[in-house]
């Protein structure tokens, strides 16, 4: 079941993000990795900046989370993570499909260049990589990230503008 996360879920969201992000350790540039991958303060800041988290629940247990952020003329998919033990079980696809149904604007997703599995997941769901020049422009316009992260990231986009399925 896909439901909006609420304030009582914040610790679980934090735990799932950091568990899921463990897949990046040793893959992304060492200077971009830190533990925890996302601090509680960073999570609270993201929520304060308009990232709305959705949960995939099995009964009362949250198995995966994905954020959506409506920003200017686009929608950003943010912080998409599934518990390590539940990877490759369709949870990410269910979350992404649901979040796509919430917007009619172009969707942008940023991820690490070396996270080949993440890129393949988004491509499987109809997203395509943008050019290097467009990536740099989009990351600087819609995200607030360090320049080093811009250098080591990619952006995927949905086309056409109306992404309802």
UniProtKB/TrEMBL annotation:
Residue ranges occupied by any N-acetyltransferase domain in the UniProt entry: 1-149
Annotated GO MF terms: acyltransferase activity, transferring groups other than amino-acyl groups
Record bears the keyword Hydrolase: no
Record carries keyword Thylakoid: no
Keywords: Transferase
Name by which UniProt lists this protein: GNAT family N-acetyltransferase
């Amino acid at each position: 079941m896909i439901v909006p996360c609420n304030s009582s879920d914040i610790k679980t969201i934090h735990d799932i993000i950091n568990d899921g992000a463990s897949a990046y350790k040793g893959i992304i540039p060492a200077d971009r990795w830190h533990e925890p991958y996302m601090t509680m303060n960073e999570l609270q800041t993201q929520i304060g900046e308009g990232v709305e988290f959705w949960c995939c629940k099995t009964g009362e247990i949250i198995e995966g989370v994905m954020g959506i952020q409506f920003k200017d003329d686009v929608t950003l998919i943010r912080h998409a993570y599934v518990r390590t033990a539940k990877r490759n079980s369709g949870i990410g696809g269910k979350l992404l499909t649901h979040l796509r149904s919430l917007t009619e604007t172009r969707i942008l997703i940023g991820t690490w260049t070396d996270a080949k599995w993440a890129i393949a997941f988004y491509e499987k769901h109809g997203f395509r990589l943008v050019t290097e020049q467009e990536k740099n422009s989009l990351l600087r316009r819609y995200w607030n990230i360090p320049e080093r992260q811009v250098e080591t990231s990619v952006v995927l986009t949905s086309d056409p503008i109306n992404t309802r399925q």
